[in-house]
Amino acid sequence: MTAPLIVLVGPMGVGKSTVGALLAKRLGCAYRDTDDAVVAAQGRSVADIFVDEGETYFRALEKAAVATALVEHDGVLALGGGAVLDAGTRELLSAHAAVVHLTMGVEEAVGRAGLDTARPLLAGDPRGRWQELTESRRHLYAEVARAVVATDGRTPEEVADAVLAALESSR
Fold first, then answer.
1. Looking at the domain assignment, is residue 27 inside a domain?
2. Distance between CA atoms of 94 and 88, rounded to whole angstroms?
3. pLDDT at 119
4. DSSP string spanning 123-158?
5. pLDDT at residue 66 above 80?
6. Three-class DSSP labels, 52-117
7. How confident is the model over 102-141, as pLDDT tens digits?
8. Which residues contact 15 (CB under 8 A, 6 or more apart)?
């Protein structure tokens, strides 16, 4: 059975995509982002899917993309911030020893460009909504993760180093 070497989970804007691509390059393996897989399959952005079809529809696409990646992908995998909302996805993730929860504080999130872009779940009050979403999901990330790595004040390279060190120490 194929399984990802590393699975990254955490809130939107934390750097899962950037760090995931760096890790894949370092490890000499492929990188996959489940949000990118959904976008490619649908031919439209996550924001457009939310607007046109709603969050429930998007979450079903996301769940399928994660399930597929967990059995087909053997590199580094980054999940969308809300992927852990689904109990079935959390159950699938619990079988993987290399799930890492990337974290950051709200001040760091506010300073990152990702919070300034059009994200459907942050409409109205991006700072408040980000903090609310992150707090409501924190226990779900903790449920699936074998290691936690804070990204605050770190470069992507430093976060990648910390991910590898955290996984090594959790073995």
1. yes
2. 10
3. 56
4. -S-HHHHHHHHHHHHHHHHHHH-SEEEE-TT--HHH
5. yes
6. HHCHHHHHHHHHHHHHHHHHHCCCEEECCCCHHHCHHHHHHHCCCCCEEEEECCHHHHHHCHHHCC
7. 998 877 766 654 454 555 555 556 677 777 878 889 999 9
8. 102, 104, 151, 156, 159
**Residue 1: inside a domain, yes or no?**
no
Token reading at 44: 């439209």
CATH number at residue 102: 3.40.50.300
The residue among 32, 35, 18 whose CA lies nearest residue 73 is 32
Tokens of 77: 């995998």
Q: Which amino acid is at 43?
A: G
Asked whether residue 31 is assigned to any structural domain, the reply reads yes
For residue 40, what are the domain limits?
6-170
pLDDT grade, residue 18 (50/70/90)?
very high
Pair 144, 99: CB distance under 8 Å: yes
125's tokens: 């009050």
Domains: count for the chain: 1
Q: What is the layout of strands, in order, in the sheet containing 6-9? A: 31-33, 76-78, 6-9, 99-103, 147-150
- Integer-rounded Cα radius of gyration of the chain: 15
Is the residue at 59 inside a domain? yes
